[in-house]
Amino acid sequence: MLTAALVALALASVPRPFTVDDLLALERAGDAAISPDGASVAYTVATSAPGGEKLVSALHLVPAAGGPARRLTFGEERVTSPAFSPDGRRLAFLSNRKGGTQAWVLELQGGEARRVTDLPGGVSELRFTPDGAALVVAADVDPACGADAACNRKADAAAEVRPHLAARLLFRHWNEWRERVRTHLVRVPLDGGPALDLTPGDRDAPPVQRGSGDDLAFSPDGTTLYYIAVSDPVEATSTNGDVYAVPLAGGTPRRVTTAPGWDGSPRPSPDGKRLAWLAQPRAGYEADRYHVMVAAADGSGARDLTAGFDRSAADLAWARGGKALRFTAESEGVHALYEVDLAGKVTELYRGRNLAHVSWSRDGARLAALVDGLAAPPEVAVLEPGGRGARPRLLTALGAKGLAGVALGEVRPLTATGKDGQALHGWMVLPPGHRDGQRHPAVVLIHGGPQGAWNDAWSFRWNPMLYAARGWTVVLPNPRGSTGFGQAYTDAVRANWGGTPYDDIMRLTDAAVATGAADGGRMCAAGASYGGYMVNWINGQTDRFRCLVAHAGNFDLRMAYYDTEELWFPEWELGRPWETPEAFERWSPSGFVAQWRTPTLISHGEKDFRVTVTQGFAAFTALQRRGIPSRLMVFPDEGHWVLKPRNAKVFHDEVLGWIGRWLDSPAPQASAPR
Predict the structure, then answer these.
(1) Pick the catalytic residue: 335, 551, 640, 652?
(2) Which of 117, 120, 605, 620 could form a disulfide with 632 if both were Cys (CB 3.0 to 4.6 A apart)?
(3) Sheet order of strands, 324-331 included
(4) 212 belongs to the catalytic site
(5) Does the annotation mark 640 as catalytic?
(6) Catalytic hit among 81, 359, 529, 588
(7) Helix pair 530-539, 500-514: axis angle to 10 deg
(8) Tens of pLDDT along 552-611?
(9) Nearest to 304 by CA among 283, 289, 317, 319
(10) ∠ at Cα 522 (517, 525), nearest 5°?
(11) Which of 81, 604, 608, 630 is catalytic?
């Protein structure tokens, strides 16, 4: 009996492999927001609802100095977007606790939250006005109704019995139809007075297709709201967002910036004399580098403070009393924090794990954020970037609790050299317990975008640790097109979709094999969005992989142009099919079906308007008619991403099972194509 007890104790102390159930059971920290004085941090924690149909979340509050957190909401609801009042005594947030998503306000000294909006189309963003007397919210309204709730209800009811009717582009977006309603900014007094539509008219202001709550700001005197609107007539082909200013009391908007690309994140200086913002110089290019601009409050005399700094800025905030600006940026697979003074001198303040949902204190001296890594789920943290060597201080330990007793893989950088001599970057994740000299089957995971990157960041969708837990070496390549390695590196994917990026992926894969940790004879590749396209492209270029997985991947680029929604993307990348047909033909996987040989799993969401489900159907048809082992998985209730926990469980089980079928056998099982 003693021996049995000792054996059981020893086994219990051995970390177990990471599973899909572990991933889905993790509590998910989100939406960190710091109080104006930097003393408190509000955040949400999401968990899977019973049955896995959705995520539910609750609002929490924790001292920025550390200490126990206080839970503020307790319903079975989805809570997002916490925002402190200017005096720090109240929290506004979005909740769907009584149907559609509306704004609520909670007194932090005690009492129940009260709903303060009743807009039929729901609310998507919110900000307290500087005097704390009202909220400005982004809401979907019928342009003929504006902020009139009764009129909007009547218009919604009438639309329910009509077919979709469109007379313009953009008439649908991501996973919803957008042919009738527009997103407007509405001022909602907290004393119950009438709501006011601040951006009336038949256009989205702010843009529904781009931007966020970071694109809303107030003048220090509380009289003016800055926001972003698309200045061009056809929103589906334009990335030209400009900064506008409108009186908070209502009135005619004033256009502040006029550059051809996207201008966003307006930031008035503390004294109100200057305006800073982030600008992309090139029209039509959503992945252009964000520059830090500063000008007079009316936009005149604009100067580029980061003209010689080859990283794309985000999370902009004034600091040091208006003498400098601080921002974050991706840099070579990690996140960094920088400061730029008004003369344009850039100083790095922090480099390390991923920073997300960044929120600055009023003086810019402290930020709250979610901090995570490839081997660390998101935690709420604060960072005081006053000097070199500053590190995030964690305020939560949700990941440590959820992963107690679980073994995760080891993360190592991966480098290679491109055919043109360019240094290439990626990551390898090795199976738990790996010892140097061991060789494992390998999975190459290809990121989407293509202007994206594998950073040292956690993922709840494509988590490399799940693959490493199966005993596989995971290769995470950052080929040309990836962000964080200089703008020329990002630009190099344009009109070159299956060219240099494909070669870079192969070279990074070869580098992983050369380390001895990846078995070049037992490899599969998988990816989503552009990564799904690349998987379809790989099938016609090489037979080095035993299996492939393509989620939401384009198959025929010419038809993908006609059935997507954000047309500026294919027009920048490839042109227009009737003007540059050779580009669409050259890089379309459909043109290489005769060379397809590799067993492939096709996955898609039926509500995906970015890459329509017909692209998945077409790829599966090609595989079946070629006689290649293949499988089709379609989620009727998902869009571009698989978000519902129960669907994520099915997705991961299918993908891991498919890859395991081909990697865990001694020899390939594919039949000869016909």
Answers:
(1) 640
(2) 620
(3) 314-319, 324-331, 334-341, 346-352
(4) no
(5) yes
(6) 529
(7) 80
(8) 999 999 999 999 999 999 999 999 999 999 999 999 999 999 999 999 999 999 999 999
(9) 289
(10) 95
(11) 608
